Amino acid sequence: MKKRAQTMAQNRAKLISAARVAFAKKGYAAASMDDLTSAVGLTRGALYHNFGDKRGLLAAVVDQIDSEMASSAQQAGAQAGDEWQGLLAEGAAYIEMALDPEVQRIVLLDGPAVLGDPSQWPSQSSCLQVTRQTVERLIAGGTMKPVDAEAAARLLNGAALNAALWVAASTSPKTVLPKAVEAFRALAGGLLAKPD
């Protein structure tokens, strides 16, 4: 039983890895399930067993990449001078990841088109909870205005996500990026108890 579970986990990881490459290179619509499975020596049956269908595989890939993005953004925030600067750095880092071709294609373009509203994705819900906890501490410490913490967290995360979506969909992402980050910082600054 343990060996079977281990084989299933390995097959799942192989399929996610192959899908990341195929979805980034060809896009979701053009990526063939047969090419995906044969690239890692598995059958369509393995894909269906692990993910239900191609859409389920995309959801697993998006969840993995989006979780990596959140972790990377949190690392950027941890390097900032204080918790407020950390919150701003996390949002800016998330927006900047829209320049990564894999993130751009899979998470910000194909993900919403196939999976729907990103704010409903499990990885986004997890990120929202982390932001809400940070906001609660900033309010308690007097750094932020005493607004509803969940509302503020949802607006901050939504602003970063929508800025990243804008960058990804733009014909000139590198030109749009600084504008998006500047506007995100200005919007967030409105939540400060004592504006900079």
Automatic annotation (TrEMBL):
DNA bind region: 32-51
What Gene3D superfamilies does the database record attribute to this sequence? Tetracycline Repressor, domain 2
| Swiss-Prot/TrEMBL keywords | DNA-binding
Q: What is this protein called?
A: TetR/AcrR family transcriptional regulator
A GO molecular-function descriptor:
transcription cis-regulatory region binding
Domain HTH tetR-type, by residue range, is 9-69
Q: Tell whether Ion transport is among the UniProt keywords.
A: no
- One matching Pfam family, short form? TetR_C_41
Establish whether keyword Cytoplasm is in the entry: no
State the organism of origin: Bowmanella dokdonensis
InterPro entries in alphabetical order: Homeodomain-like_sf (IPR009057), HTH-type_TetR-like_transc_reg (IPR050109), HTH_TetR (IPR001647), Rv0078-like_C (IPR049484)
